[in-house]
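User: Predict the complex.
Assistant: Input components as received:
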Amino acid sequence: MEQRILLTECDDANGLIAKITNQCGLFSYNIVHQDQFASTETNKFFMRSVLEGDFTYQNEFLQSIKCIVPENSNVKLVSRDKKRIAVLVTKEAHVLGDLLMKSFAGSLDAEIIMVVGNYPDLKELTEKFNIPFHYISHEGISREEHEKRICEVLDTEDLDYIILAKFMRILTPTMVAHYPLGKLINIHHSFLPSFIGAKPYQQAYDRGVKLIGATAHFVTNDLDEGPIIEQDVIKVGHRYDATKMAKAGRDVERLVLVRALNKVLNNKVFINGNKTVVF
Amino acid sequence: MEQRILLTECDDANGLIAKITNQCGLFSYNIVHQDQFASTETNKFFMRSVLEGDFTYQNEFLQSIKCIVPENSNVKLVSRDKKRIAVLVTKEAHVLGDLLMKSFAGSLDAEIIMVVGNYPDLKELTEKFNIPFHYISHEGISREEHEKRICEVLDTEDLDYIILAKFMRILTPTMVAHYPLGKLINIHHSFLPSFIGAKPYQQAYDRGVKLIGATAHFVTNDLDEGPIIEQDVIKVGHRYDATKMAKAGRDVERLVLVRALNKVLNNKVFINGNKTVVF
Amino acid sequence: MEQRILLTECDDANGLIAKITNQCGLFSYNIVHQDQFASTETNKFFMRSVLEGDFTYQNEFLQSIKCIVPENSNVKLVSRDKKRIAVLVTKEAHVLGDLLMKSFAGSLDAEIIMVVGNYPDLKELTEKFNIPFHYISHEGISREEHEKRICEVLDTEDLDYIILAKFMRILTPTMVAHYPLGKLINIHHSFLPSFIGAKPYQQAYDRGVKLIGATAHFVTNDLDEGPIIEQDVIKVGHRYDATKMAKAGRDVERLVLVRALNKVLNNKVFINGNKTVVF
Amino acid sequence: MEQRILLTECDDANGLIAKITNQCGLFSYNIVHQDQFASTETNKFFMRSVLEGDFTYQNEFLQSIKCIVPENSNVKLVSRDKKRIAVLVTKEAHVLGDLLMKSFAGSLDAEIIMVVGNYPDLKELTEKFNIPFHYISHEGISREEHEKRICEVLDTEDLDYIILAKFMRILTPTMVAHYPLGKLINIHHSFLPSFIGAKPYQQAYDRGVKLIGATAHFVTNDLDEGPIIEQDVIKVGHRYDATKMAKAGRDVERLVLVRALNKVLNNKVFINGNKTVVF
């Protein structure tokens, strides 16, 4: 039996669950798992239904759902196929390394189509796994020109998500606007909104915090202000300087990104204003 | 607008979500929140639906749901009223103390109707909060006679749950059978199934573990083998002897019990064989 | 055998551990436990030595240590007696309640000498435990006058620490300066430095964070900027509004404060610039 | 300035800290960091001192320390050089993959000298990182013969530690006895002592636990009973079957092993009877 995931995002209204699940029944789809949320803040309704059945008439099914839900809805029926991702990096290996290893071991629900770096440092590592690495230096060219070259390479492929895996460049509004909201995902090396911007571990050391963290979020024009998908922290103490914090932080960075990605790749994340709904 | 919670527990079948949510719509109940789970292991279906609306015809609604679900189902429509609980204790104050304080502060969705102790140690503490304390000593009488006296006191009140808050006596099958499964809840001072039985902290120390824990579970005839509701752990190290572990463990014991209770008191816990479904 | 704790805080220098431990040997004190830290940032040395022996000549011992360490050192030999604390509160019961309960159960290494509230709400709870409650309203008087009255009451007793247990007033520099740094301890209901100031849970909700936290810190003139003693977080999600976050946050607030206090009351915390050393 | 670590393990006695730190002073070694523990259970004393200075006369220094401590002591002065390790594997890639990646990124204080597998599955992955992989099948030969061949390969190199990274074979007492206690380190995929032996995730599922874990321990003859170095857990729930638990458990397995290794590789772990002291 095949599985598809029905994703519903619309203005909240009475009876939505009943109407949609009814329709699933009419098409003989079994609901394996379902989660829903109505946001009182935005008055939006979100539902993720894992359906099992024969999807020969999936277009008709989707059409019938669209007739049920309010106007301006976003309804999709997606397969469980692996998503296609690109990874942007600078010099640090740990997040990319984790993605490569999980992809190699078959435990990441995505295929890494390419890696793009503004330094060549991670070329060797990437190519060990037979994945193309594009080295696009930012030196000697404008920020706009640099991003243009990156986008040109990225846009040669059909990508579901672009992951900034410790890509130590701040994207311009032009590049952010080049992709739909939700396509660019960043891992930030602090427990946002603490220590926004540069050198968060130095900031954390200077403040004398007892926990450091990481935040995976969708990228928007506001630096480090995009909708948060996942966060976690680890304990530090008086024996940690900024360097030791950075080293300790690597494990939480890669774990948080992978956890966020697992949710995103399984279509469990909706964007709700500047927040996320994570089923 | 009033809220009620519809609890459905039945053999799994196709279309249950649609049929039940449809019926909610026919009675103009808005589904504020819903969670469901179909167990492939027991072939049982569990659903918890928080409904909002006018419940004048709630009996007719419940009757209509019962016509929809398979035979031998367990369907209930419960209010959000505070549950009525009794607490069984021995000498340790921390779990009872936490329940009393949370109840006093209004952050426990239950009313503590009485406390029963086989020692008088916690009488003073209980009565500070104007709650009746029944001291029923086990000395000089048989286990059966002791339990009989306890049950007699408990049964003078209509109770939803009986909490064993570090009640250091093993219940006989007779007392366990005296109550329906799901009514007796115990906090065990170890991360079950490690260290079943007596002196778990001494066992933990002897083994040299680096984490100790606590487990809240429903009571069955098999000692420390009932369905687990909630567990948690804390770090210990080589500087902890059994006494220090016991002291450190108190915080996790009371937290785990309170978390389990919050779930149970809000009707979020179903028993599924020897396991639980916790929404 | 009696135990005392030797606390050494001085400019770092070579051979300090050897010299001090030697002196302990000359007075036949056994070192049960010792921890030390040299801060490269402030060039300060901190050591906590738990000594066992006969302390008849403790003054001579302390004098001999003072001859060894650099000038301007802070050396103390303290007993393991319970510390004397006062608690400042407003209306929320959970932190005070936890302190009262732990004190009653004998698991807090402090005696609560008094509770002072700017509202009368927690008088009943405090007096259940036979502890004096002083209601000092801030209404109709200046901030300075209010604090003056509070300090007058506090200063009638010899106190080791003053705990702000959800005392929802910002202290003036005058009151802060009235006590030595390290005597005032606050629990802040956010994971500092996120959400400094008022309504941190509302701020957290608005930002859509996935973790909320609490911070125990020494009070200084800079609002929420004093040296951090202890922090922790708990997970929240899209179903939490600010009120639900506040409710969930209570458990982490009281746990963090109690953990910080346990460290402070056992003389395990040193202040090092705007940070802490926590052994 | 060079650093060396002085490791002292001996019967407990009065004045050990003073005598040893004095000696450090006489040789003009600065004590950068020191931790010590006296076990009341075994009456053993453990100390780890990080020394900084000129180690030209290190033999004389070590000799002088040996004259100070009780007989039958174990005193070592070790460098901060990377340790040399071998990794034993079967088919699962995640633990080995993490070690390879951390070693490649320079964040593991060890050099992986070789990998030995009883299946060829991880040969390709290992060789990507230019590390020799020895495939030694267990098929068609006795357990003793298989282990003999493994030991022969291992013994061609000078190794500090041998890591069982999901090596799914139970070692015979002969192989265990072939190496000194403390050289063989295993990662067990459960929170020991829960679920000793085979298929711990299936056992965990059957019991309905709400947390699953991993344990890193030194290998002894008693299956899964060796001294525990590090443990951790993650939350699971009713939606996890044994397979999903195993998948979720992989992250905690590799994290626990790497954390244990970091401690061991930095000489922070002592064996104390069937337990460990972890500084």
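Residues 242-265 of chain C form the longest helix (24 residues).
Let me know if you want any component modeled separately.
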